[in-house]
Design brief:
heterodimer, A: alpha+beta, four-stranded antiparallel sheet, 4 helices, 4 strands, 39% helix, rod-shaped, B: mainly alpha
């Protein structure tokens, strides 16, 4: 064998050329430069701050649980036969709007003697906020009476 | 586990750029030296050859087995890439057995020899470079180049004779 060198250093640019070709061919995954990491972290911080700013204040409620009680008194106008599901749909949309802000816990009908026909369990910061939520309940429009009471487990 | 195998496994775990650069830096100087000699010193052609060889090598890297040295395997890939680009006339050349050339004694001798190697006909150059410079056996060369061992031997003799006649 000859003693000629078995190694030769190519131009440094070849390394970048080869890496680019391999990345383009899907054979190597490109490393993200530190600038990209910093930019990504900054974007996350800005996004989180933005969401916090844009979020409605009442969605941050960490107050109490309240029972919104629905009474079917003598002035209450029951749904015409065959239209009961429409009222359920209206109440469900209202519940969904509460859920969006973290104010809805559960709901259901109450079966038994007396005018009390159903309830919603909601979350509100305080009594006044709970009263405002209860006042927005569509049950009123059918002549129903709505009461709200703080629930203490 | 050899360093090479560790590098290969590290790369295969995530195909990350850093792991590849480690492989590249460990073996490209040998690939480039081989490519330079096989192309008669054409730097652009040698760089293209190295680039294409890495693409082929990474495509087939999972088939690499630790029984052979990674460098030999990579050089084999490079030789095959070049074969795909060329049509070398592998007709048997009648040439007397020739002894290896004496070792070069100084930088000027080495430069003369490199020039003389670059001037060799393709087939003879390939065999000479693989055998006398990079240490491949005739059997390995025959497998790499897809020729019989006798062809490899006769091309080597031809190359040595030509070199002897062209060197001062």
């Amino acid at each position: 064998m000859t003693d000629l060198p078995r190694e030769a250093q190519p131009d440094l640019a070849l390394e970048e050329r080869v890496v680019s070709a391999l990345v383009a061919a899907g054979l190597v995954r490109r490393r993200l430069a530190w600038r990209v990491w910093v930019a990504a972290a900054a974007a996350v911080i800005v996004l989180a701050f933005g969401l916090r700013t844009l979020r409605p204040t009442h969605s941050l409620t960490r107050g109490n649980t309240y029972a919104v009680l629905l009474y079917e008194d003598s002035v209450y106008r029951p749904a015409p036969a065959g239209h009961g599901s429409e009222r359920v749909a209206v109440l469900s949309r209202w519940a969904d709007s509460l859920r969006t802000f973290g104010e809805f816990e559960s709901a259901g009908r109450l079966i038994g003697p007396g005018p009390l026909g159903g309830l919603f369990m909601i979350r509100a910061a305080d009594d006044a906020a709970a009263a405002r939520i209860a006042a927005s309940c569509p049950f009123h429009q059918w002549g129903g009476r709505v009461e709200v009471k703080r629930f203490e487990p | 586990m050899t360093d090479d195998l560790a590098l290969v496994e590290r790369f295969l775990r995530g195909r990350g750029e850093d792991a590849f650069r480690a492989l590249y830096r460990a073996h490209t100087p040998a690939l480039y030296a081989l490519a330079l000699r096989l192309t008669g010193g054409d730097q652009g052609e040698a760089e293209d050859l190295v680039q294409e060889s890495w693409v082929r090598a990474l495509t087939a890297l999972r088939t690499f087995r630790a029984q052979s040295a990674l460098r030999s395997w990579l050089c084999g890939v490079l030789v095959n890439v070049r074969r795909g680009r060329l049509r070398v006339d592998w007709r048997i050349v009648d040439a007397p057995d020739a002894e290896p050339l004496a070792d070069t004694t100084g930088p000027e001798d080495a430069i003369d020899l490199e020039r003389a190697i670059a001037a060799l006909p393709e087939g003879a150059r390939d065999v000479y470079v693989l055998h006398d410079v990079h240490g491949y056996t005739h059997r390995e060369i025959a497998e790499l180049l897809g020729v019989v061992e006798g062809t490899s031997k006769s091309q080597l003799s031809r190359a040595r004779c030509l070199l002897r006649s062209s060197l001062p």
